[in-house]
């Protein structure tokens, strides 16, 4: 999901103060009229966002659960803020920050505005609901003791890792 906020070069664009709009509309306002150019920039933006997210996830994978912030740390919903700048008559993407809340709010607002004018439903509300339900389920079992009887062997080791990440204390009885 991409939502854009347009602002002036001398003042920072703030999520809460800028009306979100689509990337295609923003690029047209900037004078990028050729559909191929707009599509190419959208592809570059998606690639840059995915690369930034992959780098964040790779760095996080190197950390212990405590270094990541414990069982309640949330990196299931992340957004990456980019600045689109004109450098030597070319549009360049500059990654500014990664966050979990502001981008999500802006994208939800943009999607709701789109639906109000007849745009089709997107995936963002479903993805948000899935992530929040997963968080709620993890919260319900956090810190609980679970007794597993005859629970799998080495092939199920991922279960124990996930249980640790969820903050579960697992006791196993094998017969």
What secondary-structure arrangement, pairings included, does this model have?
Blueprint: H1 23-29, H2 35-61, E1 79-87, E2 90-99, H3 102-116, H4 124-141, E3 145-149, H5 157-165, E4 169-173
Parallel strand pairs: 3-4
Antiparallel strand pairs: 1-2
Instruction: Give the total of beta strands.
Output: 4
Distance between the termini: 50 Å
| Spatial strand sequence of the major β-sheet | 1-2
Weakly predicted, low-confidence segments: none
Helix content: 40-55%
Instruction: Give Rg in angstroms.
Output: 21 Å
Largest sheet: 2 strands, antiparallel
Give the helix tally: 5
Mean pLDDT: 75
Shape descriptor reads elongated
Order of helices and strands: HHEEHHEHE
GO biological process, one term: carnosine biosynthetic process
Organism: Stercorarius parasiticus (Parasitic jaeger)
GO molecular function, one term: ATP hydrolysis activity
Protein name: CRNS1 synthase
Question: Can you offer a commentary on this structure?
Answer:
By secondary structure, this protein is an alpha+beta fold. The protein has a domain at about 5-120. It has five helices and four strands. The protein has helices at about 25-30, 35-60, 100-115, 125-140, 155-165; strands at about 80-85, 90-100, 145-150, 170-175. It has a two-stranded antiparallel sheet. A two-stranded parallel ribbon has the order 3-4. Helix 5 links the parallel strand 3 (about 145-150) and strand 4. The longest helix is centred in the N-terminal third of the chain and has 27 residues, at about 35-60. The termini are far apart. About 5% of the residues are buried.
